[in-house]
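Entry: GPH family glycoside/pentoside/hexuronide:cation symporter
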Amino acid sequence: MGIVQTNPQEKLQMSQSNGQPPRPFGIRDKFGYLFGDFGNDFFFMLVMAFLMVFYTDIFHINAATVGVLFMVARLWDAFADVAWGRFIDTRKATAQGKFRPWVLRMSFPLVIVGVLMFAQIPGMSNGFYLAWAFVTYIVWGSLYSTVNIPYGSMASVITDDPVERTTLSSWRTMGSMCASLVINFIGPLVVFVDNEIQADRMFMAAAIFGVLALACYIACYKLTTERIVAPENSAEKVSIGKTMKGLAKNKPLMWILAASLIFMINTMLTQAVNMYLYKDYFSNTAALSLSGLLQTAVVFIAIPFVKPLVTKYGKKEVASAGIGLAAIVYLALFFLKGLPALPFVFISAVGMFGFGFFNLVIWAFVTDVIDYHEFLTGLREDATVYSIYSMARKIGQAIAGGIGGFAIAAIGYKAAAAHQSNEALSGIYGLATLVPAIIYIAIFLILVFLYPLNKKRTNQLALDLAQRRQEKEAK
C-alpha cells in the first residue's frame, strides 16, 4: 500500500475533498489518467501518422524541408519543456492541485492550433503553405508542452506506491493505444481515397479529433486527485544550478533518458515511414489500418500481464525482455523481403507485443527517477525532472523528424511521382525494419547493463523515502 500522507498535505487535501480526507487511490484515478493521454495522443498520433504525408502531398513541401521543420520545432520544444517544468515547480499548489489546473487551462489553445495545422486555404502560394506549416507546427508543439508537462508530472503525486505507479503507467499507455486505434485504424479509411490523401477529409478528421481531445482533457481534470504535496518548508525556490547538479548525479535518469531518446527516434521514424511503406511499397493503405488495429490489440493483450509480471520480476526486467523480443522480430522481417502486406502485418504484431511491455511501464520508470532525485538531493521537483525526461523525448523526435525527412528524400522518394523507383521502395522497407531492430537492440543493452534500478533497489528506494519524509515531518 502507499504511504499515508500526513499534516503537511492536509490543507490541500481537505480543500480538494470539501473538508474530507482524500479518497483512496482507485479506478477513478486510473480512468482519469487514461483520458489524459487519450486526449494527448488524438493529435500526437495524428501528427506522427499523417502530417509528413500531408505536407509532402497536399502542401507539396519537399520531404527534406519537412525534416528540417520537424527538427527545428522539436529542438525548440525540448528547451520549452524545461522552461515550463521549471515554471510549474515554482508555482504553489492550488485547491485543485499543482498540475491538474494547467492541463485544463492550456488544452483549449492547444486543440485550436492543432486543427489549424491541417487547414489548407485554397489559392495560396507554395511559400504561404511553407510559412503556414512552420508557424502552426511550432506553436502547436510549444502548447503541447504546456499540457503534457503537468500531465506527466501528475503520476508522481497521485500515488507513491511503486506497483500503483506501474498501474498508472499501464493505464496511460491504454489511453495512448485507444487513440492509436482510432487514428491508425479509422484515420486511413477516412483521409485516403484511392491511396491518395484528401485535404478536406484530413481537416474534418482533425476537427473531430480536436473535440474528442478536449472532452478527454476535461475528464482527466475531473477524475484524478493529487495526494502528495511537498511540505511548505521544502517548497522554497532552489537555484537551477543545484537542481542540475542533482540531475547529473541521477544515473537512473541519465540512462532512462538515453533509452527514451532512441526509443522516440524509432517511434517517430517508423510511424512516418510506415505511411510510405503501406502507401507505396505495399500499395495497400487498408493494411495500414489493420496494422494500427493489431498494434492496439496486442498491447491490450499484454496489459493484464504487466502488473503480475512487474510485481514478481520488476519493471526493468519485464521491459528489457519485451524490447529484446521486438528486436528479434524486426531483424527477422528485414531478411524476409518479399512478404505480402498481410503476413508482414501479422509478424510485425509480435514485435509490437514485445515493445508494448516497454511502453506500458516507461512512465513508471519516470516516477522512479523522480523519487531517486528526491533521495539524492532532498528536493521534490516533479515537473522539472519530468520536463528533462520530456526534453530527451523531444530531442529524439527532432532527430527522427530530421532523419525521417532526409532519409525519405535520400532513398529517392518523389512526392509528385505516380510510382516510386525500386531503389526508393527497397529503402523504405529497410527504414521500416532494419532501423527499428538496431534501435531495439540498443535499448535492450541499456536496460540490462546500465539502468541500475532493478526490482530490489526500487522497493528499497520507496522505503528509504518514506522514512526520510516521516523524519522530516517529525522535526
